[in-house]
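Running low. Invent one:
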Amino acid sequence: MSNTRELGIIVYGATGYTGRLVCEYLNNQYGVGGDVSWAMAGRSQQKLEQVRDEMGIPAEVPMIVADASDLALLRLQQGCYGISEVTGEPISYERLQVVPWAITG
């Protein structure tokens, strides 16, 4: 089975202070169609759009509306597995096949 990851990074909490900084960095560094594909995520579509517009982030950057309780499922659905809380290393597709769960909260 091949890894068909669509997004490399999902910035959950993109409307908060740190999330805005991360989105600004990703937009400046990679933009749309760069080496790293990324998306803005949060609980409110309206707030995500407001932050996107305020920061001059292109409308082509994906936005994902999700509640924090949906975060583990969101990671799995998007093929963006995050960083291991134990090792600090990126979680590989192969590891996910062996231990298919994530911690949230």
